[in-house]
Amino acid sequence: MVRVIVDGTPVDVPAGSSALQACEAAGKEIPRFCYHERLSVAGNCRMCLVEVVRAPKPVASCGFPVAEGMEIKTDTEVVRKARRSVMEFLLINHPLDCPICDQGGECDLQDQAYGYGSGVSRYDEPKRAVTDKNLGPLVKTVMTRCIQCTRCVRFCAEVAGTPELGAVSRGENMEITTYVEKALTSELSGNLIDICPVGALTSKPGAFQQRPWELKKTDAIDVMDALGTNIQIQARGGEVKRIVPRVNDEVNEEWLSDKGRFAIDGLLRRRLDRPWLKVHGKLQAVSWQDAFVAIARRLEGVPGSRIGAIVGDLCDAESMMALRDLMISMGSPNLDCRQDGAHYDVSDRANYTFSSGIAGIDEADALLVIGANPRHDAPVLNARIRKRYLEAGRGGLPIGVIGDMGSDPTWAYESLGAGASALADLMADGNPFLEKLKAAKRPMIIVGQGALTRDDSPVVLEACALLAETVGAVTDEWSGLNVLHTAASRVAALDLDFLPAEGGRSVRGMLSGGVDVLWLLGADEFPVHGIGPDTFVIYQGHHGDAGAARADVILPGAAYTEKQGTWVNTEGRVQRGFQAVFPPGEAREDWRILRAVSDVLGHTLPYDTIEALRERLQVGARHVTARRSAAEALSDSVLSKPFASSGASYYLTNPICRASATMQECASVHAPHAAVAAE
User: Fold this and answer.
1) Any idea which fold 2-90 has?
2) Residue 308 CB neighbours (<10 A)
3) EC number(s) on record (predicted)?
4) What is the per-residue pLDDT across 56-107, written as a single tens digit (0 to 9) for each?
């Protein structure tokens, strides 16, 4: 530690810290525009000037390292005058359009101008104007406002791993551009809006829709992937206007994927807002009571073995618990949460979670990715892998990949093959990458859904477990065998044992006449056309997607922004979201629907409040702590086909995204073939 004195107050900071960090440790607020805690230091804006005793002039504190005994002054006349001069230069060419700027109310430049700006400008020359750039359907540009802080350039290059922005020309002619006009390809491009300190980069879909002081803010959890990104839902009236990330260093740091940020217009389109019942082959709007009575009549005399339930990828734990209790009370063993047919070893919770923790990536010194594409499966997690890759330096983090990445993952890797045969080759003695894994102190293996949704996935999973033990990825001090999920509901469903009981049928077994009555809770991501024509389908969900199109009864539920619920992310972290707006029309929270229908069915669920249901969750959840057992060697029966990545466009993976015009536009720009297929 190094001791420095900030405005007369001694403070201890780690060696290598900057003067700005020392000032903040002492509780002093230093204005800045180019400096960002998670980006490299640029020292462009000079707004963070401070006075260092015995220094000949004010120094930029963001890039000035501390030294033992250094004395820093943050609020002297010299400092104030220097900052006022910097502010005057920044405002020379800045347009005076604050009343119509989308960044108004959240603009760092506007805030600092109140403290350091002047009411009079000494600049008499014409202001410069810069042509706006087309960065795609998500980020709007007004480049005349740009102050060349280069935060966006550094974010694209360092965090997103897509160095598509840069500066051209010099001096007053300098511009931030994509060089060749094109849409940004990063799945994290929306974060540019958050880090831009002025109104140069704002939300294109949300332009001129609201002012920040009009919005009611609610904490929630993103369900567009399984990472469990902490978000804040900002709504006005009954409509979600904006979603932004919350800081959580253990999960998402302060980033959010584009799907989680921009799919909100899908919450207004294709919504189910009243119950529907199929009469003579056509759906008709009915009352809740009529829908419940129709379900009760159809279930009369149907044995539990002929009733099934499938839950979707966006469900909360409370609704899954209620549906499971209802199915069990009717004697049904046919429960499944695996729409994709994935196989998991549920004997130990560590076997089906990202057991090292997402933050464990920061400690890994070797990485093997099997059947996953982190850039599409979990873009924010992929950014964490890239950060670790950059911190380790060139070649410092050996990364091997088995399977089809589909696109540039933003970090260098060694391709080891496409399928299970490559996994067998890797386990052979003398394999060079196997030796790298063995030499690592904290090797990590990430197993994706591409490896777990195959017919031979049980054998593949056993081989991964054996490999983990062979290379020391599973020890008393380190658990480096991780499963990367893509469905927000999956881990909670596995915790609740929402799986076929003894003699029960899986999703595949419930299709083609496997059951007489099938209850779909937001389940749209399996081949619904495979449901037998005589099967009575109850669809409970919030969007008119594939499941609703096949339903005989539709029960309108609430989307994740419209209910309080519990979600468990891919690492097994339990997180809670809160209700931001009310569901449309007659739609209700899913657990309330299930509680109400249980009365009509004569199998009343034993809870009337969400608090009572959460007490039931504590009892019903899986609690397993035993260490995984050794697995057998890779079998000769393993299929030769490669580990396939999902064929769906990144932007169209769930009903909310498919209902979103913004996501459809993104898909048409980046993956036109997938967009056409989705339509």
Assistant:
1) Ubiquitin-like (UB roll) (3.10.20)
2) 28
3) 7.1.1.-
4) 999 999 999 999 999 999 999 999 999 999 999 999 989 988 899 999 899 9
Q: Are strands 481-483 and 443-447 parallel, antiparallel or unpaired?
A: parallel
Q: 309 - beta bridge partners?
A: 335, 519
Single-letter amino acid, residue 278: K
Architecture of domain 349-486: 3-Layer(aba) Sandwich (3.40)
Hey, where are the domains in the chain? Answer: 2-90, 209-264, 276-340+489-620, 349-486
Three-state DSSP at 531 gives: coil
Find all residues with CB under 8 Å of 13, minimum gap 6, and list them.
1, 2, 4, 21, 22, 25, 66
The whole-number average pLDDT for the span 305-330 is: 96
For the segment 109-124, what is each residue's pLDDT rounded down to a tens digit?
999 999 998 888 888 8
Q: Which of 339, 588, 651 is nearest to 485 (CA)?
A: 339
Summarize pLDDT for 341-369 with one digit per residue, the tens.
999 999 999 999 999 999 999 999 999 99
What is the third-level CATH fold of 276-340+489-620? Rossmann fold (3.40.50)
Side chain identity, residue 292: F
Burial of 248-279, coded b for 16+ CB within 10 Å and e otherwise, reads beebbbbbbbbbbbbbbbbbeebbbebbbbbe
Q: Which of 39-53, 392-406, 505-519, 540-554 has the lowest mean pLDDT?
A: 392-406
Cα-based distances in Å from 180 to 165, 166, 385, 418, 626: 10, 11, 28, 34, 55
